[in-house]
Amino acid sequence: MATHHLKLNLDKTELLFMPYKTSPLHDLSITFDGTMVAASRSASNLGVVLDDHLDFKEHIRATAWSCRFLLCNVRRIRPYLTTYSTQLLVQNMVTSHLVYCNSLLASLPACAILPLQQIQNAAAQLVFNLPKFLHVTPLLRSLHWLPVAARIRFKVLTLAYTAANRTGPAYLQDLIQNYVPARPLRSSTKGQLALPPLRVKGSRSSRLWNFSTLAPQWWNEHPIPLRSTPTLPGFRRGLKTHLFRHHLD
């Protein structure tokens, strides 16, 4: 920072310690310019709350609370709005929060993202001004909204498309490799991605839930015509239609 003529703002500096599973928790702290910075359990970075276990529980809790607050405000003025106006309002104020950086949640189980799905269900019921505990699948189908889990998969596969076609960021391209069989096979023309080994040699950590593993696995599960779509807009349209039929039809 000194080389680039930058000064650290200690009032906005946080220390986040992410221990390995077998490591004991330590009360760490650092001292900079005579000021001690103590470790915290979570820290916000560009709107994403990172916690010391990287399970994103704090981020999901904060997102759900923010969306619930926005839905409450929209509900107050719902009697004065049409269905279409409410839909636009909810999509801009609530759905935008649900999809923001949602690819980070790709490795989480369904029970972890359930609070976000409950928010989406409540938003759909609010759009149609219907009571709670009503079956929401017909509502999501009518609104053409993908469920939260499908939206996460949509984002990850969109990133995989840009990486596979070498139009995405270089750090994502390095994580994606096209599948090349050892000998000529029919699978070589299917546009598949190579699955990396689940464990790195010499390491006990697993890459089962990494982007480099999840993205190729999900990519190879989808139809060949979808994977070979020549343009990104066309791929996004086809992917949304495929996921919509899979999750809601």
From TrEMBL:
<protein>
    <recommendedName>
        <fullName>Reverse transcriptase</fullName>
    </recommendedName>
</protein>
